[in-house]
Amino acid sequence: MTKITLSTIAKKANTSVASVSRVLKKPHLTSPKIQLRVYQAIEELNMDTSKNFKPYKPIHNSGKILIIDNQLYSKSLINAGLEQVLKEEQFQMFYLQFPYHNKTDIHHIIRYVAQHAFDGIIIINDAPYLKTLVAYKTTLPPIVLVNHFSLDFICVDFDHLLIGHQITKYLIDKSHTKIAILLNNEKLTSSTLLLQGYKQALLRANITIEPRYIIHGCFTYQHARSAVKKLINSNKAPTAVICSDNFSLSCLDKSDYKDRNQSPDNMVLGAVHQANENQTKLTKPLIISYFSSSKELKYNQLDTLSRINKPLFEMGQKSATLLCELIKSTAKPTKRCKIIEAESIFY
């Protein structure tokens, strides 16, 4: 296999070796046009450039923050929280939704960051490119993830494992032994941890885990209606249902959500409406628990349910505050993850 060198890239990009070197090590000294040609050449050569970039140095002080928003339901309270802090710190915010398809696409982010000389980056929710971005972490400004747990990046997250255990234990303490859980995307870390917490609570209470009560791929109104209808019509209908956290869904998986309704509450509304339609088949009302973004009342049927209040606004604030501390070099390098606790969990 032929070794790819700077000379190979320069020839492919029809530029000089010095220009290629500047793009990789001193991008602020090169024009967007040259950067585009070099990155296109790198993509065509399918080259791993993670070790060719110069380590990031905070030399810009541009006052600009890049927010890569991967939320399926955008403009959530996470955005409101981080925008409040960044405005107070007098940062300009630039939003980006990054349509990632393959590993070479990561160069689009690197080029965009270099061209705008951002002081820091906030990434909301999980994304498939994070695994690739790890290799380039030292070449980019400080990065903070929010609403997603990672061992590779500093992050602000919500403990789905603990919450899964707590809500299930709460229902068990209320004499429920037949508890179902509606999960959205089984590939999401949040869904995996929520399910683990659910199973742990059942096992610790010596309750058998029933596979029929674990429903995957449930995130829309119609999905929830179908799932609850099937559960109620089964020989062993559950007495309680836990609806998963739709705030963690990513727009990059939108091919999975073709029939989605544009609200994270639609799944639980589907569950409630189906339970109401089938109430004659139930010996007592079906208890439904769901994730809410705040303690504020919604003034609809959801206000009568058990709620897990996921403080998105506070998560946004914490992520922005942490990023500002990193930019100012006041945060400790060992500070990896800030876990946000649920507010007034169940009532």
UniProtKB/TrEMBL annotation:
SUPFAM superfamilies: lambda repressor-like DNA-binding domains (SSF47413), Periplasmic binding protein-like I (SSF53822)
Span of domain HTH lacI-type: 4-46
Cleavable signal peptide: none
Keywords: DNA-binding, Repressor, Transcription, Transcription regulation
Domain of life assignment: Bacteria
Molecular function terms, GO-annotated: DNA-binding transcription factor activity; transcription cis-regulatory region binding
Entry annotated with the keyword Transcription: yes
Record protein name field: Transcriptional regulator, LacI family
InterPro entries on file: HTH_LacI, Lambda_DNA-bd_dom_sf, Peripla_BP/Lac1_sug-bd_dom, Peripla_BP_I
Any Pfam family matching the protein: LacI
PROSITE patterns from the UniProt entry: HTH_LACI_2
